[in-house]
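lol ok so funny story. i was supposed to be doing the assay writeup but got distracted and ended up predicting the structure for this chain instead. priorities right. anyway since i did it might as well share w the group, maybe its usefull for someone
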Amino acid sequence: MSDRLTEDVTKFQGRFAALKAEVGKVLVGQDDMLHRLILGLLAGGHVLLEGVPGLAKTLVIRTLAEAVDGTFSRIQFTPDMLPGDVVGTQIFNPREGSYTVRKGPVFGNLILADEINRAPAKVQSALLEAMQEKQVTLGDQTFRLAEPFLVLATQNPIEQEGTYPLPEAQLDRFMLKIKVGYPTRDDEVKIIDRMAGAGAEPSASKLMTTDEILAAREASRQVFVDDKVKRYAVDLVAATRDPKASNLGNLAPLIDNGASPRASIALIKVAKAQALLSGRSYISPHDVKTIAHDVLRHRILVSYEAEAQGKTTDHVIAQILENVPVP
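and the output, tada:
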């Protein structure tokens, strides 16, 4: 391992710790959610937050955007939206007989797709090209999006009124899906003090530039991965597709579709980011296990039998992590 990489890892570990502290001036609790958002920012992958309203999902994304010196767009998804409301459209000028392009809010560095599952599938699908190819096609013109480009989406549980399930192709483009839970009682008291107290509501200051984030991503890519750890990540993903081959025959009736190779790539990318934030220039199997639930939970389709038994994708992933040998 080069001395330069070790220096970069130490430097960026400190910078992201400072970023967390800056966001922490506004956010109370939810440290795990913030950590995983920063993992997505560092690994260059889009993040989906799921939880009931009122759990600071929008607040943490907006505050993270305030602390990063880049362009920020917020898109509030509603049932009557059209794809052009997201990516933009062509406008006809009758006097000149030509079209001009009006770019949509997706043209930015950090995009908050708020309550993404309250818009119909055709609107959600408008994000597919932007999220995967990092470009937008309007008519016969294709526009590259700025780097870094990150979609940070929130959604309410699909059991709630007025929600649409996200298409599988859309879900697979999110690197991480984070389940957001309620704060502890002590944290909730602190939230009241901070947000309903006598003083002004706190805000975050600009702390990191987009160039720093891109440099940190490059350092993350250089983090060393042993072949045994790569094989471990592949074994975890393979177990979601063919549980019997992984001696997990009891899971076979619970899974309709397993994760794609995109999951294996995401496991390694996010594990590299996890290692960097831990101050290491190499990843361990523990890094992979730590982020496995967030990478895999939205890429596995459980069967009706699993739903009847009350088994979720998190149950399936826990069984896989428990039984696949760790190198």
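The domain at 223-323 is CATH 1.10.8.80 (Helicase, Ruva Protein; domain 3). Residues 3-24 form the longest helix (22 residues).
back to the writeup now i swear
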